[in-house]
Amino acid sequence: MPATPNNVPEPSRTDPALIRNFCIIAHIDHGKSTLADRMLQLTGVVEQRQMRAQYLDRMDIERERGITIKSQAVRLPWAPTHDKGNTHILNMIDTPGHVDFTYEVSRSLAACEGTILLVDAAQGIEAQTLANLYLAMENDLTIIPVLNKIDLPAAQPEKFAEELANLVGCEPDDVLKVSAKTGLGVEALLDKVVAEIPAPVGVKDAPARAMIFDSVYDSYRGVVTYVRVIDGQLNKRERIRMMSTGATHELLEIGTNSPEMLAADGLGVGEVGYLITGVKDVRQSKVGDTVTSQAKGATEALGGYKDPKPMVFSGLYPLDGSDYPELREALDKLQLNDAALVYEPETSAALGFGFRVGFLGLLHLDVIRERLEREFGLDLIATAPNVVYRVVMEDGSEHVVTNPSEFPEGKINEVYEPVVRATILAPTEFIGSIMELCQTRRGTLLGMDYLSEDRVEIRYTLPLAEIVFDFFDQLKSKTRGYASLDYEPTGEQTSSLVKVDILLHGDKVDAFSAITHKDAAYAYGVRLVAKLRELIPRQAFEVPIQAAIGSRVIARETIRAIRKDVLAKCYGGDISRKRKLLEKQKEGKKRMKMVGSVEVPQEAFIAVLSSDDSAGSAKGKK
Fold first, then answer.
1. Cα(227)–Cα(270) distance, rounded to whole angstroms?
2. How far is 517 from 526, CA to CA, in rounded Å?
3. Architecture of domain 390-495
4. Tr-type G domain spans which residues (predicted)?
């Protein structure tokens, strides 16, 4: 087989029996990206002089924070020790490890036949490792358990190999031990991938069907679509059809990632690669769609992916109102690259035009906001994050509330809030403090299992609203950083929730409204009115700031009026003249109070609404 200059076999028409599609799943910081680096070096697709740490983490944010946000697919040639005569093609996908990017992981798993389950030999199994393992089992993937970082002084490979073996259902001796940093054991791992992961199955002569598992927008080449071919083959310059939209395009370029783009004549059964049609409209390439040939194309689309459900909502508004069209375009392009992003336009009396955006979690919100600011040069205000509530009125009507300003007035029968099933893994010494934290957050204990004599798995049902702010920070501080958290939505429950409004001079300010539990409403009101009193400048008249539930005021602060000294010109003389001047001033203040309006400065909105406190807790998730 002729080799390209990059030491990668010509991708066109590779025999499916020689292809292996797999991904790496693990918790944050267990060494996925470092293991991917060693694989790139061992297979020779990246030359030594071009090599850098975390090679597949392309975004600045990923490199700065040391986390993977986007899955990256790469094609690796490998001649295994037991079959030196044949060069196999390994399509490897490096996946994110954080709970907020689980959707990214689930899409990667659907494009693979096997997975490497990577666990840190010094830390052991974490909550997200379990979540990703169950995802892989649901997809019926071959699982290869691997312990990483065995060169660390704190590593306990024997102990954690037994834990892993019990989870996966194999012998402790079957768990591979590697060091991604030094490269120890990585060759044996690649051999095991070839030996144990099945080759892709597909019908070579059937009409072409390829699943879109990712897309990205390139300002020069338009939409770049990443696909996994299931049946048939796609060829350069043929016309293709997107089965969900019915749109047809000409394939200008087709090829593979090795790890840079490498053009080819076509892609066959089981191959993973990219398509470029030159289309600039980002709505034409939907993740989960099926690509087929226009002539003699397939009639039945592939299963696709489950649409992700946003867990946390936040309003994004441009600081400068004229940037609104740029924000819309930026969100369109980001949605192409991040299929879990959901948004719709909304307006606020205080902030103008913006978007209500749905995220999978706080870190997801933080990363998207940072990407919008960096990649598209936008200055944004993000309102405090909140979750989706369902309100049932006494007359039987229902309202779905994604924004506190949508909370209905009138007689409410029940309010439903989303709940999650949280899994916490921690050393046994912290059981008491973890249970205390969960109880204060309205949690219900579901059960507890000892994974080993010093590690415990605790399961709780918790309201999502209690998790999205600082729960993770509190958990880390109470367990000295040893606990790990994973959660999944399980439905909803009725709760005593109320809407707290903030009134300035008697007028409601919609941007400051919040939905909180009845027991926490007073504390929220007191905190916010005190903060606003410091931030809003003094007016020529007295301004009351009130927090209210319905018509009942629960907290109040007053901004004192600026007083002009009208008696400055009076020296000596009769007291009645001074009294007359003071009465005149009093009448003027009264009239001004009736017609005056309070302008809230932009800085006050940014200080109160910006989710810096919550973003801080998201940053703590690293």
1. 10
2. 15
3. 2-Layer Sandwich (3.30)
4. 17-201
Confirm or reject CATH 3.40.50.300 for domain 312-383, answering yes or no: no
Q: Which phi and psi angles does 176 have, rounded to 5°?
A: -75, 145
Q: Which of 457-466, 542-551, 585-594 is predicted least confidently?
A: 585-594
Mean model confidence pLDDT for the chain = 77
Cβ neighbours around 506 below 10 Å, total: 10
User: Which residues are annotated binding-site positions?
Assistant: 29-34, 148-151
- Compute CA distances 510 → 344, 611, 620, whole Å: 18, 17, 30
Which residue reads 């697709």 in tokens?
A: 45
Q: Could you please state the CATH topology (level 3) that the domain comprising 16-196 is classified under.
A: Rossmann fold (3.40.50)
Q: Locate all alpha helices (DSSP H) within 500-571, ordered by sequence.
A: 518-535
For residue 98, the tally of other CB atoms under 10 A from its CB is 25
Which residues define the annotated binding site for GTP? 29-34, 148-151
Q: Could you read off the pLDDT of 431-467 as tens digits, one per residue?
A: 888 898 988 888 888 888 887 777 788 999 988 888 7
Domain borders along the chain are 16-196, 209-293, 312-383, 390-495, 498-608
**DSSP string across 104-142:** HHHHHHHT-SEEEEEEETTT---HHHHHHHHHHHHTT-E
Identify the residue whose tokens are 């969960």: 438
Instruction: Select from 318, 357, 356, 620 the least CA-distant residue to 469.
Output: 620
Tell me the per-residue pLDDT of 214-263, one tens digit each, with 9 for 90 and over: 777 777 888 888 888 888 888 888 888 887 777 788 888 888 877 778 88
Taking CA atoms, 492 is separated from 10, 388, 391, in Å, by 52, 10, 12
